[in-house]
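INFO  loader      accepted 1 record
INFO  loader      residues=313
INFO  predictor   begin
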Amino acid sequence: MTGASFIAGDWGTSNLRLYLCDAQGIALDGRTGPGAADSGGRFADILQSLIAPWAASCRPTLPTVLSGMVGSNIGWTEAPYVACPALPEQIADACVALCGGRVHIVPGLSCSNRFNAPDFLRGEETQILGALNLIESLRRERRLLCLPGTHTKWVVLQDGAVREFFTAPTGELFALVCEHSVLLRRHGQTAAAVDADAFTKGLAHFDEFPQAQLLHRLFECRSRQLSGEFSLPAATGYLSGLLVASDVQGALCALTELIANRSVYLIGAPELTRRYAAALGRHGCDTYAVDGAAASLAGLAQVHRRLSQQVVA
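INFO  predictor   done
INFO  writer      dumping tokens
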């Protein structure tokens, strides 16, 4: 394919997304495949089979940059974590090379967070690199990022370096309660799609009693169904509102020195960033959203450029 320069891949636990990109990191074509958990150790074979049509139409030695769980202990090879504070260049330079240097795997990040606990991320570092490339102001002074998801990351940047972060398993807790708890199971049914109005109500009700622990509010997802106030979809939305409100309030309390300018950059899926923007807005925060897929692709392109410079040098 004319103009193809490299292959970028986000190889997570459940899914693989590959993109054929030009030199600027613009996707020319895409492929999907099994995640790391379902790859059965056949990473090289899976990658080769998916990119074979590109190799035939372009060239067989296109460089490939991969991020995500492909670099974990369930992946192709383990790419060691880079300790924070970490500059973008340090992250790219720590890539692990495979297949004679044709394939590079981006490492994750580690830190001792402000709760005096070890913390780790893998895959989000590529989205952070992409956001730094897409938004110039993130490279200056101290900035706060939020990457909502299964394991939401709150990330502190200092002059373009990842200084520290901490993790809230907000999305995982939501899924566990929806799928395995009697709070949202009824007559064999499981939780339905999130109701937007009930989500907003969850945010508002949580803020009415900010002193209450989240554990003291969760049973409402069931009790408000029993009282006839909520349908199952409404209870699901209400749960999401409670969890996101708790996550946001806890993060802002822990990051008081960073909220002076009341700006938070959200990186992730549009629906999730909208929910977090709504919660942050209730605390007077300005939010700026970056699409997670676009950030990931921009980050992989940035890593490719750095690796290409090293080859030239």
